[in-house]
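Changelog-adjacent note: as of this version, every example in the card shows the full chain rather than a window. The one below runs 409 residues end to end.
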Amino acid sequence: MRRLRPLLLLPLLALLPGCEAVVLSPAGDIAAQQRDLLLMSVFLMLIIIIPVMMLTVFFAWKYRESNKEARYEPDWDHSTHLELVIWAAPLLIIICLGAITWSGTHLLDPYRSLDRVNKGQAVAEGVEPLQVNVVAMDWKWLFIYPEYGIATVNELAAPVDRPIRFHITSTGVMNSFYIPALAGQIYAMPGMETKMNAVINRPGEYVGFSANYSGDGFSNMRFTFHGLDDAGFDRWVSGVRAAGQGLDRETYLELEKPSEKVPVIHYGSVDEGLFDAVLNMCVEPGKMCMGEMMAIDKKGGLGLTAVHATWPLVHDKYARRGQAVLGSGESYVMAICTPLEAEKAAVDAARRRQELAVQLTRSAPSEQIMGMGLARPGQAARTEVAAAGWPFAPRIPAPTAADASASQS
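Full-length structure tokens:
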């Protein structure tokens, strides 16, 4: 009976053909190339692994204790031919592995635009990739189609043999966007945008999910990906547009709240710029976007502290060296204001510059903050040796009408 027990596992083996090895049988060209890279790497490694395993069994059998005819040489310690085989074969395999890994890493870069949709089939001239904006939420997926002005939750579709370009971000927790039949996984991170280019080559329904643990609802963070022909995709888009409800910022803020097992939702319209607001973490009304905040920080920052810290500086004050992010003019930001307030601030700035110029000419050199003492662009540096020993004390020219107009801009 003990010998017959392994036979009880045979019914379980009969169920294995029902399992779909989607990673080894993908429906997208990128995933197929990744599979080929995986199989080639495994094959090259097996060239070493299989002989080593076979020799291990052979030596254990040949030099067993009961084999009295085995040749025993306790004083043998070196063979040049054997050393050459032992070291040369792995070295050649490592070189081959490095070559295919390096080329595959660059050719399958998810940020790289596709130059083919299938083996031997280049991207047709004039074909634009399908743009899909992906937002990983807690615990659901939002897909926005800016070309069609629609959005869906937990459902994705794309036409067969058309390149797809995903722009991926997250609302709060790092996630991983993964459709095994389409391409490899890529991370979704809040406040950052990652990209992936892929293509689906066979019609069908495929599973997509999160491959990075993100909390309680992680196990149900799945969606269906439809590979459709052109006519089927057009019908799908028409069906989503007929949903009636739109995705505005208020609706998005409700959708963003954590929820599990969310059914498929269709939005027939989407607010323009919603994905950029999600990416910059400023969907809430009145919240400053990260892009604006970084531009202000590069300009010098907000608040009285920044004003007092930068106002006395002469260096690089009246014009920016190089390309200014927010245009020419003041090299710092004092406040967020309306156009009328900006015009008044420009006039006040010109007056304060003139007062500062007079004040600096009357003050002692040691009290002046000169920086590098650079002259304004287009003018030669004018310096004079101060009586107190200050070597570089540039004269500050009075502001002109051009300065005022630049400040207003």
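Structural remarks: The CA atoms of residues 63 and 71 lie 8 Å apart.
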